[in-house]
Write a structure and sequence with these properties.
By secondary structure, this protein is of the alpha+beta class. It is built from 5 helices and 4 strands, in the order H-H-H-H-E-E-E-E-H. Helix 1 runs antiparallel to helix 2 and helix 4 packs antiparallel against helix 5. The two termini are 56 Å apart.
């Protein structure tokens, strides 16, 4: 979107008043510090600055357009490189993951429609499965701050960098939340990924 050009209302008024002052004969005496010449000088400086500002705005519009075009080109190259790596090494390869792709085996699969025994998409596994994942994460990061709380409706895993809570209903994990004090979410992603994989295995077993 083009930037709005500045047009000073005060400058427009000054030009009108200067035109009127120049018609007065003899020239009016406005005082020692308020001369027509000084007034004209301020108007000229304002007009020059307005013109310079609008030229810079036009340059910024051009620069923004060129930047957007370059960014689109960069995004296109990102897609092309990812597609090329996928074509060469496969969508489930480590090389594909190295350049930022999500391996096919790790992508979220659509939920299967089945009978009443099939878990809903919100179900993330049983209590035992959730506890197994939590204990695995806890054992990998031994610390005085690594605590696991096993309640009837809530399982909470507290580590040095945050806290993960899983809500349970009838011994089935339904929601998982993460509160973290750092920017690293690898453990959280692995945690939820494991729960989702478990839920998918349950879905496949109950659907057959």
């Amino acid at each position: 979107m083009a930037r709005k050009r500045r047009m000073s209302p005060a400058l427009a008024v000054a030009r009108q008043r200067l035109a009127g002052l120049n018609k007065i004969t003899p020239a009016p005496n406005l005082g020692p510090n308020t001369t027509v010449a000084a007034y004209q000088g301020v108007a000229n400086d304002t007009a020059a600055l307005e013109e310079s500002h609008n030229q810079l705005a036009a340059q910024m519009d051009d620069s923004s357009n060129r930047y957007d075009a370059q960014e689109n080109l960069m995004a296109d190259w990102n897609r092309r490189v990812l597609s090329a790596v996928e074509a060469q090494y496969g969508p489930d390869s480590s090389e594909y993951e190295m350049v930022g792709g999500t391996r096919k085996s790790e992508r979220k699969k659509p939920s299967q429609k089945g009978g009443g025994s099939t878990p809903t998409p919100k179900q993330l596994g049983s209590r035992e499965q959730v506890l197994a994942v939590c204990r695995r994460l806890q054992s990998r990061r031994p610390s005085a701050q690594a605590q696991l709380d096993n309640g009837p409706e809530l399982i909470a895993l507290s580590l040095a960098d945050g806290r993960t809570t899983v809500s349970l209903k009838n011994s089935i994990a339904t929601t998982a939340k993460r509160s973290s004090t750092c920017s690293c979410f690898k453990a959280w992603k692995k945690f939820v990924g494991k729960l989702k994989n478990m839920a998918e295995r349950v879905q496949r077993r109950t659907a057959t």
